[in-house]
Design goal:
Elements: E1 2-9, H1 15-31, E2 35-41, E3 47-54, H2 57-66, E4 72-80, H3 84-89, E5 97-102, H4 109-119, E6 129-137, E7 142-149, H5 152-161, E8 168-171
Antiparallel strand pairs: 1-3, 1-4, 2-3, 4-6, 5-7, 5-8, 6-7
Helix pairs in contact: 1-2
Length: about 180
Amino acid sequence: MSLFLLELPLGTAGRDEAQELLERVADAAEGAGGEVLEAAVTGDHTRAFVVISAPERAVAHAAGRVSGLPFTGPDQVRLVGASESDVRAARGTSARYLVEWDFPAELTMETYLERKREKSPLYAEVPEVTFLRTYVREDMSKCLCLYDAGCEADVRRARDVVQTPISRLHDLGGAPAPSNAR
């Protein structure tokens, strides 16, 4: 199985509408032989990031079509900092912040992973922040990093400590996840 990222612009959907949409996407993924591994919705319910574990891209694409929204992806991603079983075990708890980093054109996967190994121990300098995991797009255009932290300033401080930029920072604020994700 591979992992694929869908990005869905929810517009002004409220919490209930976002929940319903994620359940439809999860049902479609499951019906096509995949599963929603993780979904993160911005606290203002305007954007969803959905990671689907599937045997092929077409499964994730079909799940995205069910949303009825003009989604981005599916883009193949690599999970770094956790395993799929770790993510499944953490269901019911959610990250509080999601950081998007648009990679510079010259960055390679090998260089990124080596840098991640070197810098990750530095997160200990900011104990208010827990780095949870990263999804790195295989095309090396960007990554999504998930954190648990009390406030945005702490996440920014943690990123400074590991000397890693922030392209966009989203407060997830307890946003919904599909209730039928298994």
